[in-house]
Amino acid sequence: MPDMRRKLIAGNWKMYKTPQEAMQLVKALKIKLTDIRKTDVVVCPPFIDIAAVRDILKDSKITVGAQNMYLQKFGAFTGEISAPMIKDAGCEWVIIGHSERRQYFHETDESVNQKIKFAVAEGLRPIVCIGETLEQRQSGETANVITRQFTGAFKAIDATEFGKVVIAYEPVWAIGTGKNATAQEAEDVHKHIRSLIVQHYGQTLANATVILYGGSVKPENAQSLLSCPNIDGALVGGASLDAEQFIAIVRTAENLN
Ligand code: PEP
After folding, report:
1. Domains along the chain?
2. Contact indicator for 153, 116 with CB cutoff of 8 Å
3. Which residues are paired to 64 by β-bridges?
4. Which of these, 76, 168, 226, 236, could form a disulfide with 240 (CB 3.0-4.6 Å)?
5. Lowest pLDDT segment from 6-20, 51-65, 168-182, 203-217
């Protein structure tokens, strides 16, 4: 029942954009996306940009997310940022378990699981990333990897908590490489993820859960990916740094609805 779900387009800016650059980008998005009605739009800037971005977007429908958070509420954890801080800074969303965090900062399914709990307890909506490496895909392991990451991430997460979650399927080999999954490859995995949700949380929640595709989404491939019945939107990295490209992807989603 894909028509139950609104499309969601989220931009992951990674470690790009100074506060000045961030303000320029969101000013352009705010002006040019005033007519968007059927698509939810989220930007996830670096922590240092969040306050400035929030101020510019406060009277728009574009919402703000963080790219990561620590798995404690507060404490002597120099350099870290917690869920209450993110929430108080004006974020509604937080990306959890992005493959770059898993690869470079040793995030595990266990830490992802703990972060989801802290995020939801604080009223944030987690965008939880899962996806296989090229090696795992080539050895036919994709479904097993997705099942393992899903089960680990949502261990002891109850249905109420899960109801706040958005899942992003991001094949690691497609992130920042310019090589996107085909619509069919992505749809197959999204279908598998939805079947895991049915298994763990039931059909109603599975129908309502938004599952994003991420991995080299561009204006040129957005239409074919976003037209798939189980692809409810996109987590966009590189193309979200350019106002025109990000706007074109949002408009593609809006026109499909
Ligand atoms: C991402 O950072 O989540 C991502 C999908 O990046 P890109 O669109 O650049 O592949």
Report:
1. 7-256 (3.20.20.70)
2. yes
3. 43
4. 236
5. 168-182
